[in-house]
Amino acid sequence: MRILRALIAYREPMFEYYRDLLVPGKPGPTRLGAVLLLWERWIDARSRCTQCGALGMMTGFGGLLSVGSMSGWCLGCQHVAHRRTGGFGVALRAAQQALAGTGYSLPLTFPQGWSLGGNASGLVSALQEVGAEGLRRRRSVRL
Ligand SMILES: [Zn+2]
């Protein structure tokens, strides 16, 4: 969770120096540049937390053709939020639009979708390189 907060705080240097770093997730890792552009360009990938009002970032989506869901983390209180969407295709089109012309894509599959998560020790090292503090450096850090 602190990792996501640091990623938002240091998004500019992270994009500049580490945009091709692989961020762990399912069904496979995603390039950091794709994640940062998705959050920036897809308005539904950001939301206000219903619990505390802080910014929340989408960290995954999936579903069936007609019913889908997005999930994310609040950067303030760490509340896990789920939201229904119009279906997998709606999220897929929005994600593709956000990344159009950037050379980035999401490694997603239907109907599993896409989500961030896994050992983020490489990401933590990169964040520390650009000045993020308060992150513990261990061999295995869960995102
Ligand atoms: Zn919150």
The main pleated sheet reads as: 6 strands, antiparallel
What is the chain-wise order of helices and strands?
HHEEEHEEEEHEH
Q: State the helicity in percent bands.
A: 25-40%
Structural class: alpha+beta
TL;DR of this structure?
The protein is α+β, with helices and mostly antiparallel strands. It has 5 helices and 8 strands; from the N terminus they run ααβββαββββαβα.
Helix and strand layout, with pairings?
Blueprint: H1 2-9, H2 11-18, E1 22-23, E2 25-26, E3 30-31, H3 32-41, E4 46-48, E5 55-63, E6 68-74, E7 80-85, H4 88-99, E8 114-116, H5 121-129
Antiparallel strand pairs: 1-3, 2-8, 4-5, 5-6, 5-8, 6-7
The structure holds zinc ion.
Task: Describe the protein.
With 143 residues, the protein is of the alpha+beta class. It has one domain. Helices cover 33% and strands 24% of the residues. The protein has five helices and eight strands. The chain has helices at residues 2-9, 11-18, 32-41, 88-99, 121-129, and strands spanning 22-23, 25-26, 30-31, 46-48, 55-63, 68-74, 80-85, 114-116. Strands 2, 4, 5, 6, 7 and 8 form a six-stranded antiparallel beta sheet that branches. Strands 1-3 form a two-stranded antiparallel sheet. The N and C termini lie close together (7 Å). Bound molecules: zinc ion. Residues 49, 51-52, 54, 74, 76-77, 79 line the site of zinc ion.
